[in-house]
Amino acid sequence: MNQPEAGRSLRLGTSFLSVMAVMLCSPLVLAEGPPLELIQTIDLKGPAGRLDHLALDAKHGRLFVANMANSSLDVVDLKAGKLLKQIPGQKGIQGIAYASDLDRIFVGNGEGNACNVFDGENYKLLKSIPLDDADNVRYQPSTRRIYVAHAEKSLSVIDAKTFETLAEIKVLGQPESFLLESKRSRLYLNVPSAREVTVIDTQKKKAIADYKLTLAEKNYPMALDEANHRLFIGCRSKPMIVVLDTETGKEVTSVPIPGDIDDVFYDAKRKRIYASCGEGFLAVIQQTDADHYELLAQIATVTGART
Fold it and tell me: Are residues 233 and 123 in the same domain?
């Protein structure tokens, strides 16, 4: 397709380059309409193409966007509803984590083979940490540690203040999405090539269990219901959300969803799961209890809108 001019309204995913803001509706609204309502579209700049992951700075009302098509880290002012800044030169930008207590932005650049660290006030580059095919990034405030999934089959543990590498944890395949528990030293990591979830003890800095998947495969994103000890694993082959018991690794149940899932989130307040699927839908799943789930809605986005 032709490349749009910078500043034009650009479509999300492969045909739109914009960020959509949605309002979460209460159960009372469901009788009259869908559980999510589109309230705003914020245009970005650059060639049409893929956006990857996002990170939120709730205190300052900023959204950090991995604008892969533009090789830039985009900063969106959510209060003003506009693009605030683009930081260029982020080749293959994928994962983003924001450390609010340090006011630092950590960016995983796959093609740039680095985790870049930016000052959250002036956006200056503070450090470029060499890591092959850096992908997903997570921050743990209690320990001030950054975790970065990267090649070859590794998860790096980095001191977010000094940038010192504290450990390299090896896994059975290329790591994808991972999440940290807040109340104990546990990390869950998707390894699609092994068709499993690896459980890592973050204090011991080593894998302590492998949870095999049998209901589906190509497990990329995940979400966590820490209170109920449930993991929600987004799978692309046999598209579904697989619900895992975090204590036993048992597959509790599954819910079919549209294809090409790349992000999934758990809304603890409303007991809902939001699955962003590149086929062109946002699936909303209602949690009745820890073991029972039903598809509430499939809200149309556009093809290629995956995160």
Answer: no
Answer yes or no: is pLDDT of 175 > 60.
Answer: yes
* 163 and 190 share one domain: no
Which of 18, 103, 104 minimizes the C-alpha distance to 65? 18
d(CA 237, CA 292): 22
Burial 87-110 (b: 16+ CB within 10 A, else e): beebebbbbbbbbeebebbbbbbb
Residue 193 phi, psi dihedral angles, 5° rounding: -65, -30
Listed residues 170, 193, 217: the one ending a domain: 170
* Burial of 24: CB neighbours in 10 Å, binned 0-12, 13-18, 19+: middle
Closest to 190 (Cα-Cα) out of 150, 144, 222: 222
When pLDDT is cut at 50, 70 and 90, the band that residue 27 belongs to is low
Q: Is the pTM of this model over 0.85?
A: yes
- Name the more confident of 153 and 34: 153
* Nearest to 192, CA basis, from 169, 216, 168: 216
Among candidate residues 289, 287, 285, 293, the one with its CA nearest the CA of residue 264: 285
CB 297 within 8 A of CB 31: no
